[in-house]
Amino acid sequence: MLYTGAEIVIKVLRKLDVEYIFGYPGGAILPIYDEIFKQNKIRHILVRHEQGAVHMAEGYARSTGKVGVVLVTSGPGATNAVTGLTDALMDSIPILCLTGQVPTHLIGTDAFQEADTVGITRSCTKHNYLVKDINLIQESILEGYQIASSGRPGPVVIDLPKDIQNSKTKYKENIKLRSKFKIKEKKTYAKNYNIQINKAIDLIKISKKPIVYIGGGLINSGNKASTELQKFSKLTNFPITSTLMGLGAFPASNIIFLGMLGMHGTYEANMSMHDCDLMINLGARFDDRITGRLDGFSPNSKKIHIDIDPSSINKNVEVDLPIIGDVSKILKLINKELTNGKFKKLSFTSDWWKKITKWKKKNCLSFINSKKIIKPQQALVTLNKKITDKDFFITTEVGQHQMWAAQYIKFEKPKRWMTSGGLGTMGYGFPAAIGVQIAHRKSLVICVAGEASFLMNLQELSTVKQYRLPVKIFILNNKYLGMVRQWQEFFHGGRYSESYTDSLPDFVKLAESYGIKGVRATKPEDLDIVINDMINYDGPVIADICVDEKENVFPMIPSGAAHNEMKLKDSDNIATSTKEGKMLV
Amino acid sequence: MSVYEKNNIDSSQVKSHALAILVENQVGALARVVSMFSARGYNIDSLTVAKVTEDENISRITIITSGTRMKIEQIKSQLGRIVLVHKVVDLTSEGDFVSRELIFVKVKSKGEKRVEALRTADIFRAKVVDSTKQSFIFELTGSSDKLNAFIVLMKDLGLVEVARTGSVAISRGSLKIN
Lengths: 585, 178
Ligand SMILES: Cc1ncc(C[n+]2csc(CCOP(=O)(O)OP(=O)(O)O)c2C)c(N)n1
Ligand SMILES: [Mg+2]
What we know:
Chain A is α/β, with parallel strands linked by helices.
């Protein structure tokens, strides 16, 4: 029996157990939409903008560990997806994005809604395909799915010309993928890690001032990795800090957790990174938000770097012992050695822990609360208190609110926190929350948003309404592009060029116009009630939290500074950042 | 021990490296390789590409690039991430290798200069592949340095145009790279 390309697409996706497709139709993808209509196993979520579709798929993928699937049309459909694909590439999120394309005989003629999709997406995908031969459609999708989800995950685009969707071929029940793809993912790993593990153990044994620095790779490595990390921490008592991407991989409530590090990380985390004699990097990539000025970055430490991607090794920081592979497997081996070797763990009365405890006492996340005006930090502290016992997920937009959420919301489990770390995409958080909610219908899903970021993808309110998704949008409304305003205050003489958001909508009325609940808090005493209202309401809510317009995020390591040159409060005279620093972002 | 491990070689020294890259012979493979170089700001001093095996559909790309040891390692592993790349070998650090390129040099001159051009070509063992009353085209194969030297001499002898392939390179000895 022969099937059309479009039929095969759906058959393959079903074989892959795809439950949801996030998409938007158009001329060049109609044959596949026709097949979606004829079946009811795979649910299609109709988004309102293709960028939203990719972010939803990202939220779905990050909260489940599965691949997020996107379906869009040619030309503008594909180009609208580009920001989302780039976001997924930067944050290593598995996405399979199917794009329609003009028929093969029209490719290259500037046909209606033609775009060079494989050309445009080449630098924002892990891999991409233009399927010009109907006999390759099945392999391409299977292979693409495998590439997206294996090794260091990432987005894959499969461009499907309309004539290929319509022409017919056999469906192959037993298909053998070209095995080199499997080999490729594996061959970069060592056959056995004995030598490296022994070296790591030696470094661990002689270290007096160790720190463990974890990143998103630990989350991608699965729940096993978090379990191994907990074992490791019990065996060693080593302090642990996390990047923005790694939050939740280790429980925030554990006393050895020092919080987030980096530009807006805690004092104790950054000072420990600076002063340590051994740094163990687990699935993080020495990003510039983390390292600050490179020549001032942890100058006196030996560095162990465990990562699945060889290209992450020695990219920004040269390390002493790289171990390439799946972090959960390698940690397991290290734990085994530590157990067998009867490793004596670091005592809380050691000089190192005493020093860290002293840094902790700075209480760097404390802030001066107000009775008159809602402090954004207070809003999040209150939110955190009210959700800790609940089954919750947090997504964020990008800006000050994102950093405050990272600082004040405490995560105990992995895959509960989705934020755009690498690309810093305003407009990510709300659609991502929709994707999370679709995968976890019963859970409390909250998007911590800035008013400006929310405006970038607010069209998805319509999606929330249509699918009755009880997503909560918690807007810290400071009427400013707050993070931009903060930089202008510190580094550009307080000239607030174009960072005030004039003509904002009334968010409560906006919610109501979609038939969604809207609530507002303007005074500190409103916070409790409004947050309760939001959490307890069975349906989507926009909570407009009107906060202090001029609050700044602290601590802060200005660009071009080192970890021990952190500013903790406004009076710390941050404006003295170097000229070189000003050139950085 | 891993090749990524730190050693005591001066890591700030910039050196030229010949990379042999085996890629699947598919649209997009070369584009991905080249755009990786431009996106990450690495230089390509020369590039050649051709299909080398009929049966397996493999093309071989030779790229001459330069950088510190850390940068070359980074280039290698970034290349390794590209799905269509099967194998990357840094011929320069793996041991001895031979590398050659080919040029065509068109020279237009009269009288004594024309004779001198022919004589120089002879010394370099260049072949004449085309000649008219006023011009020659020389074909010359060799190391990049030798070709450069030839071009410099021809500048005074009526050099009109150069076509150049870029280097191809292969390791010495009996071992195969894949
Ligand atoms: C798409 C996009 N454009 C521009 C930026 C630069 N940017 C970073 S934060 C920010 C301001 C965000 O404002 P808002 O969402 O209100 O958050 P706040 O900082 O006020 O909490 C801007 C413009 C960005 N990150 N993403
Ligand atoms: Mg704002």
